[in-house]
Amino acid sequence: MINIVLVGFMGTGKTAVAKELARRLKREYVSLDELIETKEKRTIPKIFAESGESYFRDVESHVAKEVSNKENLVIDAGGGVVIREENVLNLKKSGVLICLKASPEVILARTKHAKHRPLLNVSNPQEKIQELLKTREPYYARVDYSVDTSNLTISEVVEKVLEIIGK
Ligand code: S3P
């Protein structure tokens, strides 16, 4: 069975939805962010602070390629994974990509109390979200399926994803 890969901006619900999907489908849940932290033996904020974003992106590409050799997984990919075309091509080889979306207001509300996302740990997260959404929009638009999670519960999003994959 091919992998189900959830992509999309930070705060769109990827982690919660991927965990619930994995439970429902009795599949293994895999988080690329967790694989990166395990491989690097340090947290994502530390990787960004000590080695910079482009180093982080290299490790992200490495783990994305590794999981693409496996199957039957529900993969929770980080929000920036789509920026590199090689990642999208690798993940597509063994999986169906589904992009979760949400409005900037919902993203801000869902992310504002968390401190584990270095890109949003800035003085004006609202502006940063708008800026990043604008630059990433073309990348997210290339993913075949998308679900707007702004007004949906986790189980409602799970149902929509199950419909997409024909389950
Ligand atoms: C990032 C999203 C994060 C994590 C890192 C960078 C991004 O994952 O990979 O902080 O560039 O959008 P989540 O989308 O799971 O928060």
Structure, described:
With 167 residues, the chain is of the alpha/beta class. The protein has eight helices and five strands. A five-stranded parallel β-sheet has the order 2-3-1-4-5, sandwiched between helices. It is globular and about 45 Å long.
Keywords:
167 residues; alpha/beta; 5-stranded parallel sheet; globular; binds shikimate-3-phosphate
Helical content stands at 40-55%
| Gross morphology | globular
User: Runs with pLDDT <50, length 5+?
Assistant: none
Number of strands: 5
Class computed from helices, strands and strand pairing? alpha/beta
Quickly count the helices: 8
Straight-line distance between termini: 12 Å
Strand content: 5-15%
Strand order of the largest sheet: 2-3-1-4-5
Average pLDDT rating: 96
In sequence order, what are the helices and strands, one letter per element? EHEHHHEHEHHEH
Question: How are the SSEs placed, and which strands pair?
Answer:
Elements (H helix, E strand, L loop, with lengths): L2 E6 L5 H12 L2 E4 H9 L3 H8 L1 H15 L5 E4 L8 H9 L1 E7 L2 H8 L13 H17 L3 E4 L5 H11 L3
Parallel strand pairs: 1-3, 1-4, 2-3, 4-5
Helix pairs in contact: 1-8, 2-4, 3-4, 4-5, 6-7
Shikimate-3-phosphate binds next to helix 1.
